[in-house]
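2.7 Reproducibility. Because tokenized structures are sensitive to small changes in the input, we list the exact sequence used for Efflux RND transporter periplasmic adaptor subunit, including any N-terminal residues retained from the expression construct. No trimming or masking was applied before prediction.
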Amino acid sequence: MPVAAHFTRLDDFRAAAEGVVTIILSGGDLPEESFTIDAPSIPGILRPVAAPRRAGERQLTVWLQGKDLDSHHDLGSVTVYPDAAAASAARSAVAEEDEGGIPYLKEQQWQVDFAIAKVALRTLRVSVPATATVRPRADGEAFLSAPTAGHLRAAGETFPHIGMPVKAGQILSHIIPHLGAETDVASLDLALSKTRAALGLARQERQRLEGLLKEQAVSKKRVIEARNAEQVARAELEAAERRLGQYQRDPGTAGGIPLRAPLDGILVQVQAAPGRYVQEGDPLFHVVSPERLWLEARIAEANVGRMGTPSGAWFAVEGFEQNFDTHSLNGRAVALGGAVDPASRTVPLIFEFDNPDEALRIGMFAQARVVTGEKAQAVAVPRSAIVDDGGQDVVYVMLDGESFERRPLRLGLRDGGWVEVREGLSAGERVVIRGAYLVRLAAASPAEASHGHAH
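Resulting structure tokens (single pass, no recycling of outputs):
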């Protein structure tokens, strides 16, 4: 009696490539019989040849041993027939009863991304839908504008660019202020000479009066005034030196008014280039801290009353397979708007959350569900198990290892990657959670799906 045993590793749903399989027949008030094969004929399929000596109802056990494997499978009661003719007749009858299932062979399952999961009761969070946008925190972004008119100069070897990381206090560039219409370098040089001479004169006057004060030839008030005059002259000299220095620096040396990053982050907008002339107030740089972001959800007016006290949100962003959940991202509710937007008839609700690996970008659009705080126990399946079949939500239920059934569903709550099933499934059934669309294709041509299956 040839036997074909298919073995799938449940950690990755791939074929068990090695191992020793033993077929054990027991019970029926008959002696126990066992049959062993040491190596699979092809990965995942082992074919021990069983030659039972006694017919009757027996208990069938399959025992697989191998590296990191020791698995017993009690397959229940089987009939051992007295001869090949009786076995063939019984097999034909079983085949007729099994017609109607969708065949999808183990050999096919092992070659694709395929997985099965058991349907179970889960605790789902009640939520309301919302459209949302990813945006920076209020204290997590800054705009830098030109403080005065002038020409931009790089602060280092390269000029700032989009995506460049910056540190708080880092000089991004310098502005060389624009000289007035009646001002030139020669005039600044002359002003410097005048202030230098004025300082020298003020110093001499202060020294002369201090000498006279020692002889009590002048009042102390005159000396104090002279000292103040010297300090003013020194300040004017320093200012003149700074003004002239901004235009006399070597071109390779930073100069002018420094523009510093106000926070750690990255540059998301650069509206400047080296040498460009800017007017006072022109926008230059936009810095954003991407480590923690805001999700601004817009709640429809009709759902505000159902929202209760929001405890979090989960949201999907196009291009990402996984959902994002503020609960698992160290999130918190920041603010709920106090007025309905007259144009969109929505109320804003803001959540703050961590941005792991800085995967999300400012301005991304998201479909969100705001968690109301209520919970419900329900039969649920992973979202990946559900297939849209002509506008109808269906799953594929495993009848046995290589046979499946199409099952229409009526769905309910959605919570992250899980969906409530109100009708169509029972707890304990097993459904395809990866590769369901391939089973759907197999249903369209079942003859091709089962073609070539030989044990």
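The chain has seven helices and 31 strands.
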